[in-house]
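User: Run a structure prediction on this.
Assistant: Running it now.
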Amino acid sequence: MSDLTLPTEAKAVTFAAYGEPDELRVTDLAVPQPGPGQVLLRVGGAGVNALDWKLRRGFLQGVFPVTFPHVPGLEAAGTVVATGPGVESWQAGDEVLGLASAAYAEYAVAEAATLAARPADLPVETAAGLPVAADTAVRGLGLLDLKPGETLLIHGAAGAVGTLAVQFAVEDGVRVIGTAGERDQEALRELGAIPVLYGDGVIDRVREAAAGEPVVAVLHTSGDGVLADSVALVGGPERVVTIAAAQEAGPLGVTFTSGGSTDTAVGGLSRTLALHAAGTLSAPVRTTLPLADATTAHELSERGGGRGKIVLLP
C-alpha cells in the first residue's frame, strides 16, 4: 500500500540493444509495482557497477540474459513509497538502502528483506554505492573462511569491494596485504592494510611485504593475469576467490562468485553500517551524475582507475 500519490510514469535509463555507452537513453516508463515481499522506492541515488556496463555490452549474455528495453542498476538508496503484500518491516516514508532491480530510475523495486535503514547522517549518495560492494565483500571473505592472524592478499584493494573487504578483514583480526595504484597506497595503509603496488612483479612485492609469513588466501576483485600466480602463491586454488575473472578462474580451479543471497546482503549492510556508526567507515564516492549523464557514468566505469563509486542521482 502507499500513503503517497504516485505518478503512472517516470524517468528511467534504458538500452534497447547491446553496444556502446551511447545505447543508454532516458525514457518514460510505467512506474513498477511492488509484488509480495517487495517495496517501491523513490530512488535518491543508484550505484554504478561494472556488471551494469558488462551487461550493456553483451559480455554476459550466456549468464545474465536481458529483455529489451533493459533498465540497468543493482543498488539504490531512497524512500519507501509503497509496500507489496506481506511487508510489515517498512512503511511509506522510511529511508533505506539496499539491492534493487532496475535502479537507474526515479522509482525502483527492492526486496524488503534485503534493505537496511539509512542513518540520517549517512549521505544518500554514499549509501547508494554501498549495497553491492558490501554484499560482495562479505560473500568473498566468507568463502575464504579466514581466521585471526592469517594473511590475506586482496587484489584491487582500493576499489569499492576491496575497500570494504579490507575493513571487514582487519576488523576480524586478519593481516591484509592489498594491491593498488601509487596514489592509493596511503589510503590502504590508513585502513590497516599493507599496501603493495600492482603491475609487473606484484607477487614478488607481495612476498616481500609478507615478511616471511605465509599468504594463505587471495580475494581477487580486479586486475588482469594475476590469478595463476596467486594460486602458486598460496599453494593451490582452494582459498583463491575472484569476483572479476570468471573465464580465467575455471581452468585454474579458482572459485568465481557472482550474486549473493539475503544473508550476504543483510550481513554486508549490517557490517558496513556498524563501521559508519563507529565513525570509521571509508566508502568514497568518485563522482555523482544525473540520470541524463548515464552514458558518461558508464564511460568512466569502463575506464576504471578512479577510487570510489560512481552514483547516479535521479
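The first helix runs from residue 50 to 57.
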